Structures are given as C-alpha cells and as structure tokens.
Automatic annotation (TrEMBL):
Any single GO BP term: translation
Pfam families: Ribosomal_L27A (PF00828)
InterPro entries: Ribosomal_uL15, Ribosomal_uL15/eL18, Ribosomal_uL15/eL18_sf, Ribosomal_uL15_bac-type, Ribosomal_uL15_CS
This protein's name: Large ribosomal subunit protein uL15
Organism: Chelatococcus caeni
UniProt key word RNA-binding: yes
Length: 158
C-alpha cells in the first residue's frame, strides 16, 4: 500500500450542493430561499423574530449586576498555610505573600490577591502581606506571634 492509494470509503463523502446555478440543478433561480421578502435578501434577517409575538429575550426579566470594582481573591485558611510550613513548601522566615503561596502550590494563580481566613490552627510565627484577612484569621496569627499587613487596593479606572 502506498500513500497515493489511500482514499475514503465509497459514499463516505458527498459533494456539497451549489445553489443558484441554473434551473436544471434543482436549486437554481431563488436558491432555496423561496420568493421575495426580507429572508430572501442577502445580509439581513430578523434574528429572534416570532411573527409579532413578544420575543423570548424581551419576555424574560433582566437580572443581575456586575460590579466593575469587585476583586477576585484567593481564599486561604491559616490551617492550610500551617500544613504547607510543616511540609516544607513554605518558608516561615520569609513574609507570606501571593507569590510565595503560588510557589508553594497553595494557590493556583495570583488573581487579585489573597484573603486569609481563620479556619484551622496556626503555630508558626509568620508575617503576612495580603490583600485582606478576616477577624478570626488576624487573631489566630497574632496569637501565634505573627503580624498581618493589609496591602493597599490598586486604583481601578472605570
């Protein structure tokens, strides 16, 4: 067998119908579009037109709101940070930042920063430089002898 011998099975492919190529072709003259009217013309056609009935996209209510100033933060519990330190993935001497958490594999990517939450137990003395922290997290960190520095939110121009 040679490369030139390879071909599709008989009847596997079908030639496409070229419309508007003469009456004898069976798809000539109007080219399968019927006669006259907006839908027979090129370029325009009312999308979602339901014959004068109120279209679905206008019958349904508008819902929701998108806040342009919202931040997409990684949420990390103090217990998860302690696990990473115990496993040797996070350096207890260096400050805990978004980059350090991504490098340790706690966060997949940086996003808009990290918010520390208070679930779990923290024993290591750590310095956190994060976008936010809950009251429980701050008390757990300070109880272990560490500190929390909340970074300034970057100004977003709307």
């Amino acid at each position: 067998m040679k490369l030139t011998d390879i071909r599709d099975n008989e009847g596997a492919t079908k030639k496409r119908m070229r419309v508007g190529r003469g009456i004898g072709s069976g798809k000539g003259k109007t080219g399968g579009r019927g006669v006259k009217g907006q839908t027979s013309r090129s370029g325009v056609r009312i999308k979602g037109f339901e014959g004068g009935q109120m279209p679905l996209y206008r019958r349904l209510p508008k819902r929701g709101f998108w806040n342009p100033f919202s931040r997409d933060l990684n949420e990390v519990n103090v217990g998860r940070v302690q696990e990473a330190i115990d496993a040797g993935k996070l350096d207890a001497a260096a400050p805990v930042t978004v980059e350090a958490l991504v490098a340790a594999g706690i966060c997949a990517r940086a996003r808009d920063g990290v918010k520390i939450l208070g679930q779990g137990e923290l024993t290591a003395k750590l310095v956190f430089e994060v976008a936010g922290a809950s009251k429980n997290a701050v008390s757990a960190i300070e109880k272990a002898g560490g500190s929390v520095k909340i970074l300034a939110q970057p100004v977003v121009e709307a």
